[in-house]
Amino acid sequence: MSCTLTFVDHHRSPDIRITDEPNVTAPAVATDSDLTDLIQAECREPFDTIITEEGLDSLMAATIIQIHQGGRGEHICIDAPLSEKAMRKMCKRGGRVLALHSRFIYESSLDCFDEVTFLNPWEIGLTDYCVAELLYRAVGHDDAFLRDLTAFGIVGDYNVEDSMETMCEVIEAYPDIFQELQAYRDEGALDKFAVLRSPFKPLLKRLRAPVVIGGVKEAQKMLAAVVNAPSFTYYDLMGESDHPVKKYLDRQYHKFLKLIDDEKMRFEMNRRMVGKVLLFEPKHKSDNVVRELADSIKDDRPDWIVAVKVRHSRREIKYSLRRGTLEVDLGQICRHMGVGGGNPFAAGAVVDDDQEFEDNFITEVNQYIA
């Protein structure tokens, strides 16, 4: 039985070039509309398996396609490359597989698939729509519920500027929630930073909570909860609604808050302060927990740079770096040091010597401030 893979992504491919594989095709189209038509054609027949990562863009894209398919298709959420054995087992079952916004697919063996179709607007010079937006444009453009889910993917992937039309529709649909964003829109100043200061921030925290608490298994439960429940609005999520998804997210969010509060108590007892940098190594090692913890500490202490580190092994230490009001470009510093990257406000680094990195990072920060 044949097995095909459609892989939809929107980021620059890593050094691994899957398009060099003989079974991979990457159709070249001239316009955004042509790409929408191509994705729409791929979605005419239902997919048997849908692969995502834990990020909101990936999960919301999968939710859109599963709702489009009437709930059909097995959802598999991954947090690492799939082994060759797992891929061959999937291919042996046959059918159509869809992978959405997953960097791990680049690192997985794809030679067992009879055909792989790779669709990525960034690779062919088109508008860098996130994957949720690409799926929404292809299969759900007249559905307000799918539009609202798409906005979560857009904001969660920091892709507001490329999806301004969808974002403005959502802001217009909820005027009493997004009054401030309407003013930014009218002034031509709407961007990802304004959106992340708006009520979208607590909404996204609720949607991320299940993944932070339970990883890939809870991500799968969350997607199933959304797909199988009646549609809902932002008013349902932010108000006193009895909607089952609202109840589920509230339970997970309370667990999330307790976890973060416990870690922040450890932070108060064990942090190190060097210049304008706060250094901390939490109990929990999950990348999702570390990112949320770094964000939360930064919100409490906006005048500082927060460096939360996790020691995955003796020679692999990861740092999540955040800053608030301090005028330092964290992404540029990490790129200059050759250990990672990011944007001015948030960056990440992977090093093999934590003391050397911390000494050099603090020196770079001090030079930047000076």
Distance N terminus to C terminus? Answer: 65 Å
Q: In one word, what is the shape?
A: globular
The stretches of 5 or more residues where confidence is low (pLDDT under 50) are none
Radius of gyration based on Cα positions = 21 Å
pLDDT averaged over residues: 93
Give me the secondary-structure category: alpha/beta
Task: Give the helix level as a range of percent.
Answer: 40-55%
Number of domains: 3
β-strand amount: 15-25%
Record field, number of beta strands? 12
Tell me the series of helices and strands, N- to C-terminal.
Answer: EEHEHEHEHEHHHHHHHHEEHEEHEEH
Main sheet?
A: 6 strands, parallel
Strand order, main sheet: write it out.
Answer: 2-6-1-5-3-4
- Please work out how many helical segments DSSP would assign: 15
Account of the protein in words:
- With 370 residues, the chain is of the alpha/beta class.
- It has three domains: 3-141, no CATH class; 201-262, no CATH class; 271-369, Diaminopimelate Epimerase, Chain A, domain 1.
- It is 49% helix and 16% strand.
- The strands form two sheets. A six-stranded parallel β-sheet has the order 2-6-1-5-3-4. It has a six-stranded mixed β-sheet with strand order 7-8-9-10-12-11, with helices on both faces.
- The mean pLDDT is 93.
Secondary structure elements and pairings:
Blueprint lengths: L2 E6 L15 E2 L6 H11 L6 E4 L3 H13 L5 E4 L6 H10 L1 E6 L2 H4 L8 E5 L11 H9 L4 H13 L7 H10 L5 H8 L5 H5 L3 H29 L5 H5 L5 H27 L1 E3 L2 E4 L6 H14 L4 E9 L2 E8 L6 H8 L2 E3 L3 E6 L2 H16 L1
Parallel strand pairs: 1-5, 1-6, 2-6, 3-4, 3-5, 8-9
Antiparallel strand pairs: 7-8, 9-10, 10-12, 11-12
Helix pairs in contact: 1-5, 2-5, 2-6, 2-10, 5-6, 6-7, 10-12, 10-13, 14-15
